[in-house]
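User: Predict the structure for this protein chain, please.
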Amino acid sequence: MNYSFYRRILGLFSLLLLGLVGCGGGKPAPVTPPPVGTTPTKPTEAISHTSLVDAPGDAVSFADITAESGINWTHFSGARGKKYMPEVETPGCAFFDYDGDGLPDILLLNGADWPEVKTGRKQTRVALYHNEGGGKFKDVTAGSGLDSEMHTMGVAVGDYDKDGKDDLYITCILSSSRLFHNEGGGKFKDVTKETGVDNEGKWGSSAVWIDYDHDGNLDLVVGNYCKWTPETDVRCTVYKGEKSYCTPHTYTGDSIRLYHNEGNGKFKDVTQKAGMVWAQGKTWGLAVLDFDGDGWEDIAAANDMEANCLFHNKHDGTFEEIGIMAGIALPESGQAKAGMGIDAADMDNSGRESILVSNFSGEGLSLFHNTAGKRFRDKTTDAGMMDTSLLKMGWGLFIFDYDLDGRKDALVCNGHIYDNVQKFQPDVRFADRPLLYHNIGGMKFEEVAEKRGDIQKPQVARGCSYADIDGDGDLDVLIMQMDGKPRLLRNDGGNKNSWLRIKLEGVKSNRNGYGAKIEVTVAGVNQLYRVKSGSSFLSALEQIATIGLGKYSQAERVKITWNTGQVDTYKNVDANVLLIATEGKGAKAYAKQDLKSTPKVYTGS
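Assistant: Here is the predicted structure, written as structure tokens:
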């Protein structure tokens, strides 16, 4: 949480906080512009304005189906009036298909009582919901191995041992973070101790799986926030002497950690060796991208009142932090914001991934546009995102094509940390509505949440994620609420646009295909997607790429570039199918995502 809000907005009420603490970047490693595959039939700028539909977006509406879905669960932050910092920064969530039946299941993260509280109260802390189909979910937490007491923060999903089942890494506070191995049959085993990824009991935040050295095994990046315990808690006030949550400046930050997968069921902490030590810490969000198109995944970190980081992959097992030189460390103002959530994607169909970061109220979003694969420029105002986000406190966010028109849109979830914020800032809300940005081309966005049904309802949001829960091809949304119920929002309406969903199965690459680049060409428009772990805030997004094809019934070309360098190309792929592509071995297309149907086989080239 950042409090430069008070420097800008609450300064009117004579509340001043400390300024930014800078971040070192050094000189960036040489980079080259990214390859974008086949030369488009039109110039890049023209493509960014090209729509694949006649009237995109207007038919889409989101319906709140939480109650009817069977999800009956409430988050517990542990708050009991002491205003401990970690209380207001959870919860996260995940969509993942833990049993491989083709339907995304849901993991909901929870808090716990603080050590000094002795209530004897028993409750299920983390909730695992199985997707039963038809928009229905069943609570299967009991006996799953996930029903243990832990004060959770974030989650990352990945098959670290390549057994075909996705495992869970859950970050925690005041205890070790946990690695849960998927045993099959809805059972998970805590293997933290034997694998060596306990994060040494630090205050973990977001985490991502990434095969940074392309050895075929998933490595683990763990974000850490700051050094805090109930015993070292500091009394801070912001309004008439009332105890409140402190600013990040009050506590010392903790570094990101990098664990290398040794391939034998164990991990090794290589943070220092790999150049990932980040003493300033205070990291909330992590995103994986290949910003310079060199075929090696880089890591972007959203930091709280510290400059954002960009760790450039140097191809030799090490990284160089180049946030300042690359242009994402600071916004146009030159003053560090409070980075919370983060995502990266090709938002203008240029073949280059831009970065979106959520911040504290009074700061607005940060949209860093990737220019020529070498440097980013702050385009928040030009894109139409600054005015609409300025007074909102953003957390989880993601970039997705909600209306399947071939342009990537964005959702930002909001909610303040102070339940009394309107006492000193009448225009700011504790419970606030999300922001839904519709991409209208040319790196311009229109905020449309109030036109899109139940998604506009206010809540004290934190983490959020997306998945296609009902197999209709469009993306549904899950929003977590602090000390409240989550909201499952089904993507409804009369949207008739076509789609293509692609699931990757690595062979020599990591099993999830994380880091692979997917390029889809339809009607001469090239779309770039990257299969990855992480993004949002403390949450994990669905591990399937969803590509909007607009009014077209085929994709002219699907090109997949794997981490190993293997390139698989498929031509004339039908719309409205789930394409399961296996590295170097062809692909199977299942109509309407029905895994029981007879698939169409694509041999590729």
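The two ends are 49 Å apart (CA to CA).
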